[in-house]
Amino acid sequence: MRFAIPAALAAMLALWGTPAAAQDDTAAVPPAVAAAEGRCGTCHPKERVQFERSRHAQERVRCVDCHGGNADALTVGAAHGAGFTGKLAKPAIVRMCASCHSEEQKMRAYNLPVDQLALYQLSGHGVRLAKGDLRVAVCSDCHGAHDILTVRDTRSATYPLNVPRTCGKCHGDSTTAAGRGAKENVFAAYASSVHARALLDQGNAHAPTCTSCHGVHGAAPPQYGDVNKVCGGACHTEERRYFTAGPHDQRMAAKGQPECASCHSAHAIGRAKPERLATVCADCHTAGSPERALGEKLWTDYRSAAQDVEAAEALAAKAEAVPINTDDYRARLEEARTYLSEALPAAHSVTQDVVLVPTQRARSVGREVQSEIREKLGRIGANKLLLLVLWFYVGLTIVVVRRFRGDRS
Amino acid sequence: MSATTPQKSGRGHWLDWLERRINVTELFSVLSHFGFVYTPVDNTRPLREVWDEVLARPVSSYLRWPRVLGLVTAVLFGVEALSGVLLACYYQPTPATAFATTRTIARDVPLGWLIHQVHAWGAYLLIAAVTLRLLRFFWDHLYRAPREVLWVCAVAMGWVVIQLDFTGRLLPWDGHSYWSVVRGLEVISAQPIVGPLLSFLVAGPLVTGDMLIRFYVLHTMLLPALFLGLFFLTFATLRRVGLSGPSALEAARPARTVTYRDHLASVVTLFVLLFAALVTLATLLPLPFHAEADPYSTPPATRPPWYLLPAYALIQGLHLPRWLPGSALLLVSLAVLFLPAWLRRWDTPGQERRIRTIAVAVFGVWVLLAIAGVFVDRLK
Q: What is the tens place of the pLDDT at every residue in B195-212?
């Protein structure tokens, strides 16, 4: 018994002192390819380390499944013997990956699609590869060779936030891009865009990335006439609705101009700035043309409505400092802001009557709120005249008090 | 006495009835402890006789500049107490309701805005009156024997009004007041020993609901009671040592002697004028109503209340250790409290002039530091 306390303390110290050994988290990870399953790692330790982290290792895919040869051989000659393919050429990589990923029986268990090869063959990459261009991307260029991870893994090259950099490996390399005759460094242009701000700065994984517009395995530039479907099909639906109802849609398609990209650029898409209404038309229309005048008119209408709403908001802030109850005005000014934000998609119709509807609504709400708040503030100002009455009674009181003093003195 | 009273006029009938059951004069004499009557009252005689005598008795009026500052302080305290009671009818001191109920008072209750603004403006004027009175006491050397107790009371009143301001500042729970108190507490709680102790008493370094309710208790109960106690002491001393002689500022004019009746009429006039001035200020220069406090966002240009600005300027501008300026401020205010003891032997005219010069220099530095405190954040 007399050793019980020291023994307990020693046990506690021992437990405290050995956390690294006890908490080795490799034990929690499912076994990857065990050494017994192949000896390739003996000579290729770097590849082995990469592979053991990959999704394929968890599913017990073995080196020989892709590279052929004999994983159990004791000599290099025997290991690299019959059926060994070594490092595969680009066209062979596509076929090799598809040998599993196009097999419904193999992929069904993982609920993975099996159309990647078919899509790839239709893509810009696939078409060029078929023509013998070996500079294009194949499966391993985007997914990696040995360290393939799922799209949901934040370390994966195909995780949405990492996609711009993955595509940018080729499309952001000016030498490669110039070799293809590309006009701009696409990655740099995208990185300057409002889409990149949302995706990369705010970490919004739903923000548009390269694959959102170009497709994934079937990646290709959209055709003229399809650009408005790409931008407005799922995201900018209101802008597209007004755009297709306006004159630009048909005429741009006829002239072979990329619809949305004509004004907003293809990749360096900036934040929507209403003041651009006054200037952007100059990119195509000559000075003094009715189209230029229309653009300036749309901007003037929008600006005057926005100024009315801003003035009403400033008055509401002034009223709150009194304080006057502005809950109702705040709700109506929200409504006015909604009208203003409807006016910007409506401007894609480039039709004055269409844009005037929301701007005039915003303006009338703004002016109503202004006049109602001014009336209330004016009433408070008029109350100040009551001070005259107060001071009259103060004077009267002083006279009475002096009389009270004068009586006895 | 009961035999003579019925044949007196009917007006005094109820008073005589009361006089037979309770010593009304004794009750009345309580008022004299708070300055309403500052001459001795004979408790053994009936009230009407005492009152007639009080009215006719010649007194030296303190209703002349600068002696009037004491009375202004008393009247403003009365206005603050009255408007404070009215505000307390609606105000609820919890973080969830403090701002909403303050807004109800200022926005929805009839004339609530006026009470609220009068309370706020009255606080500024009260601090100004107490400060001016203290400066005047200093200038006229009224800390000398036998007026030491008056001086100590005047300094203590200065402390109490500043604490009333600091505690009342938090109550509306708007962004401005909340962050002003946060900044103020940073200066105060950085002091060694005193800081942690004060923090403990007001429920910790964080501005939370616990602190709000303690500030409320301090603002509405403890500090006003303390202020009343100081009034009592002031008038008790005044009855013993008499009103101060003519000020150095009005040395040429002799002190005026009036009847108490005249004096009372002047007090009523002063009250009416002060009240009208407060209502005018509240109407013409209303203090702005700020948005609700958000503990997660500091509004721009937030700084501590003006009386902590010199310490704030030193902390922010010169990067002095946080505990130093607050402690220096505390030591200076303690030194001011014990001024009568410090300056006991400095009584020749030359020495008195030197005291004034030093004081003007110290006051000038204080004002300059306070101005620096306003701009110290803007310079960064």
A: 888 888 888 788 889 999
Gap from B203 CA to chain A (nearest CA, Å): 31
Range of the domain at A63: 1-86
Distance from C-alpha of A58 to C-alpha of A33, rounded to nearest angstrom: 8
Domain presence at residue A139:
no
Q: Answer yes or no: do A398 and B273 touch at CB < 8 A.
A: yes
What is the DSSP-derived secondary structure letter of residue A31? P
Q: Which residues of B touch A404 (CB under 8 A)?
A: 261, 265
Task: Say whether residue A320 is in contact with chain B using an 8 A CB cutoff.
Answer: yes
The SS3 of residue B59 is strand
**Are residue B117 and residue B41 in the same domain, yes or no?**
no
Inter-residue contact A199 to A150 (CB < 8 Å) = no
Domain residues for the domain of B286 are 68-305
Is residue A259 a contact partner of residue A249, using CB atoms and an 8 Å limit?
Answer: yes
For residue B227, give the CATH number of its domain.
1.20.810.10
More confident residue, B257 or A321: A321
Q: Do B269 and A391 touch (CB under 8 A)?
A: no
The alpha carbon of residue A388 is apart from the nearest alpha carbon of chain B, in Å, by: 10
H/E stretch holding B54 reads helix B47-56
Residues B106-142: pLDDT tens digits? 999 999 999 999 999 999 999 999 999 998 888 888 8
Partners of A380 on chain B (C-beta within 8 Å) are none
Domain final residue pick, A86, A121, A152: A86
Helix H, strand E, coil C: the string for B104-172 is HHHHHCCCHHHHHHHHHHHHHHHHHHHHHHHHHHHHCCCCCCCCHHHHHHHHHHHHHHHHHHHHHHHCC
Collect all residues of chain A within an 8 Å Cβ-Cβ radius of residue B55: 408
Residues A29 and A64 in one domain: yes
- What ipTM does the predicted assembly reach? 0.79
| Chain pair A-B, CB pairs under 8 angstroms | 57
Q: A314: which residues sit within 8 A by CB, 6+ positions away?
A: none
Predicted pLDDT of residue A2: 53
Q: Report the residue from A320, A384, A391 with minimal CB separation from B289.
A: A320
Residues B259, A384: C-beta atoms closer than 8 Å: no
**Residue ranges of chain B whose CB lies within 8 Å of a chain A CB:** 55-56, 103, 106-108, 113, 259, 261-262, 265-266, 268-269, 272-273, 276, 279-280, 283-284, 286, 288-291
Q: How far is CA A382 from the centre of its chain?
A: 53
Q: Do A322 and B261 touch (CB under 8 A)?
A: no
A321 part of contact set with chain B, CB < 8 Å: yes
Same structural domain, B243 and B278: yes
Distance in angstroms (rounded) separating the CA atoms of residues B335 and B362 = 13
Average pLDDT, chain A: 88
* A381 interfacial to chain B (CB closer than 8 Å): no
Higher confidence at residue B40 or residue A321?
A321
Q: List phi, psi (to 5°) of A171.
A: -80, -5
Does A203 reside within a domain?
Answer: no
